[in-house]
Structures are given as C-alpha cells and as structure tokens.
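subagent[fold] <- orchestrator: predict structure for attached chain, return tokens only, no commentary.
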Amino acid sequence: MFLFSNSINRQVTALLHLPFYYKGSSSGFERGLHSRNKKAMEFIAKGWNALKEVDRVIDYCELNDRRLIPLLNTAKENFELALEADNSNTHARYWLSRLHMKYHVPGANKAVAAALLVEAADMGDPDAQYALGCHLRVENEDIHSDQQAFYYLEKAVDQLHPDALYLLGAVYLTGDCVKKDIASALWCFHRASEKGHAGAAIAYGSLLLKGVKIPESLIKFSLKRGSAAQMRGKNKESITIDPVEMAKEKFQIAAKAGCDLGFKWLARLEEEEKRLLTQDY
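subagent[fold] -> orchestrator:
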C-alpha cells in the first residue's frame, strides 16, 4: 500500500488518537459529542473555504507560489483544529490528507497524508474510500494493490459515491481486473447518473443507443423512479423501455451538469427525430 516506516506510523497514530475522558450522564455525553462535532464542522468549513480559494487561482500561478501559503496555512490549521475538536471526524482526516498529498503546504508530509487517508477510509468516509481506491490503482501495479483498490471502491459504491460508481462501472464495462459484467456496469452508471454524474449519464445513454440490453431488474428500478420504463401487455406484466427516451433523460442530466457532450447528444437526437418525421410525411 503506502510505503512509510513503522515509526512514522506510530507517531501519526499517537497524534491522531488523543486520550478522551468523560464524566457525567449519557445525555451530557451526547450534548458534548454534538458540541464537538459542530465545532469541528465549523473549522472544516473555514479550511475548505481557504482551499477553495486556492483552487480558484492555482491554475494562474505556480503550484509553489508563495502567495498561496497564507491560504494553505489557514486550511491546514483549521483542519487540524477540527481534529482536535473531534478526533472521530472523518471529513477532517480526509481534507487534511488531501492537503498534505496534493498541495505545496509548508510541512507537507506524504506519510502523514497516507495514514490520514487510510484511517478516514477505514472509518467509513466515502470520499476517502474513493480517493484511496484511485490512489492504489494508479500508484501500485501489483495484484494485491488492485484487490485493495477494488475493496475500497466497492465500499464507496455501497454509500452511492457518484465518482466511485462511475469508476466501478467503467471497470465492469472494460473487464479491467474483474470479469466483464455489462449489467453491473449499467447499474453503476445508472445510480451515478441519478446523483448528477455527467460522465455516467453519457455512458449509460450511449450504451442504450448502441442497443445494449437493460436488465429487467434495472428497468423495474427505473420504473419506480418515473423514468421512460413502461408496463405493457394485457395484465401489464411485461416491462419494456423506450431506449431513445431513456437515453434522452440521461443526456439531459449531463447537460444540466454543464457537460458539452450532453448538449451534443441531445442535438443529435433532435435532428434524428426531425429526419424521421420528414420521412413519414
């Protein structure tokens, strides 16, 4: 996985797992827990706003531009304060790991970033699980790392993380490291598109227009959501879909997300509809 010494591991663990003492009733404990969590989220919001400002200007300057340091320090301090306020907060761990790993913040430490990311992922943070899964796929080429990457991606998918759903759908579609499974790929693309993921919506719509068969279980699921699935037959026992209409729904999702491909696909479908109408007349 991540290569860093056991001594660094122990140091990071000691820093992250601060002792906590509590005296009082369970209701008092719950109030204290809520108070710490609220304070931690306030620090995270401040750190995230500073990081958002860095992302806004970073494309127009060098990555190590000294003018970014005050903002990076503000983000780092607030994420650390969030962990001090609530050591169980996975969001603080994730954002602090991202800061150490991606940005030129003073005191950045890849080993600390790795430890924080693994802890956040193991504590159930879907963003951390997705990031760790991607990191393991990119940074390591051995089979063991692929299995670990798939494990964390599936954990994020279980929580319907849209990027994880899209990536896992692509893995199933191509058969990369797993047995090729079009039905599973479609399910992942469909659920990700419901979360507004433009790439997943384009992938799903494109597969529909190519004539890929949609599993009946997914059609039933779509029917419950009020999509282009329809019941047919005297007793309305059979289920079918209009692939063009469903594809259009997906392209509309992509267009709503600002994806140019979504607009292009919608334009192509509109042209095709006009062409067919002209032929009918």
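orchestrator: received. Logging for downstream: The mean pLDDT is 83. The chain has 13 helices and two strands.
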